[in-house]
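2024-03-11 09:14:02 DEBUG pipeline.ingest accepted 1 chain
2024-03-11 09:14:02 DEBUG pipeline.ingest length=502
2024-03-11 09:14:03 DEBUG pipeline.predict start
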Amino acid sequence: MKAKQIVTVVFLSASTALATMWGYTHLGTPGTYSYSQDSSKGIPVNYAKFFEGQKFGSGGPVDFTDAASAAIPATVHIKTKIARTVSNNLPKRNPFSDLFGIDPDDFFGDRSRSMPEMASGSGVIISEDGYIVTNNHVVDGADELTVTLSNKKSFKARVIGTDPSSDLAVVKIDAKGLPFLLYANSDEVKVGQWVLAVGYPLTLETTVTAGIVSAKGRTLDINRRQSTTPIESFIQTDAAVNPGNSGGPLISTDGRLIGINSAIASPTGSYAGYSFTIPVNIVKKVVSDLMKYGTAQRAYLGINYAPDNMSEDIKKQEGIKDGEGVYVRDVPTEGAAAQAGLKRGDIITKLNGVTLNSAAEMVGQIATYRPGDKISVTYKRDGKEYTVPVTLRNNTGTTEIVKNSVIDRLGADLQTLSKKDAGTLGVKGGVVVKSIAEKGLFSKTRMEDGFIILKANGKDVATVEEFKKILESNAGSSIKLEGVYPGYEGAFTYPLLLNSNE
């Protein structure tokens, strides 16, 4: 090819390219446009963290291998065995028993048989001598616990203590020199940061999944199935969690424990996008209580507050605005908040300097303290902000240590009958069963909310304290409860088995 032809071809190619670029820039594709941000005024404030001593966009890829290698040996598989008594298909009654007065069990023999149920979950080793934290719902009602380490070694385990309110439990195996996870600070966890979930889902071996923190301070109202005073302030993530992950760890990229995986949001029962984790700051406190006292030391601020899921109509009626803090609906006179001067209509904005955006966040913060702890409460009243010291109390209105007792296993919210209501009923006193949880000794009876206990084993009951003493003196045996329902005629009786192993 001659030089003149080569020059001609190059010129035509260049002209075509320039024409194409001009046409794309000036004519473009219908409905599209380009946008250039003006950085002369500085970067947006939400990107400030990226410029603290580093070039924007210089962050390298995240490597999860070190965090996973730290967590896997400290994550265990918990298998439970629960003995259930079921009946066979024989008729429940002997058809001749009414006619001849024959006891059906004498005629046919005992028709029930024990059928063990197997279940499994995960757990986290928190000390070298075998203390393990998991979910209460993983070990609840178990007759036998087996813990298997990542190296396949298995141990029989025993329950040290449980807290249905937070859905946490501590179990123990007899072993030494175990790997364990270090605690992080869940208050420092940020939305958007990488996290890993570790556990034994769907009967698989140790499994690690990755995701980010998608929200904090979530409440699902699922712990109410186990407790009448639930604690919920979950960390929400999109790390895949399935049945079997319960009780396993959520960790940061440096391998530290952020929380205990507890629940999933799913229409099918399997992972469908989001999982929920109990923050480690709550875990640390509850675990310490269970190991030291045998029961969680629950602190109360002493207020009735507007829940996060309150309807818009009620919010409008009471003048509640979203995003301001926690609205105080009532302040019982015997509570800690009343002593500090809080009133109905106040809006709590901070606890010990930690900003509150929801009631769930407030519950989560209070759950990290014990009765007797002093905290600062910041609130708004009539447009002004105040900060006052508050000494938290227990559910009896004191700062004393609460010891585990049989009354804690009833699974009910009890209250001494007021003098006014006692007078209306014509009795000296009683104990009101305000609500019954889905699990607990009362849930095994036919008792309904609102029942008023008047007698226990034939002895008059006037207060919760009197009822507690009768229960403790009959621990391990059966007891008969007698009482009434307001608005209904006649007395009702419920037998109750105070099994010490329940």
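2024-03-11 09:14:41 DEBUG pipeline.report Residues 444 and 496 are 8 Å apart (CA to CA).
2024-03-11 09:14:41 DEBUG pipeline.predict end
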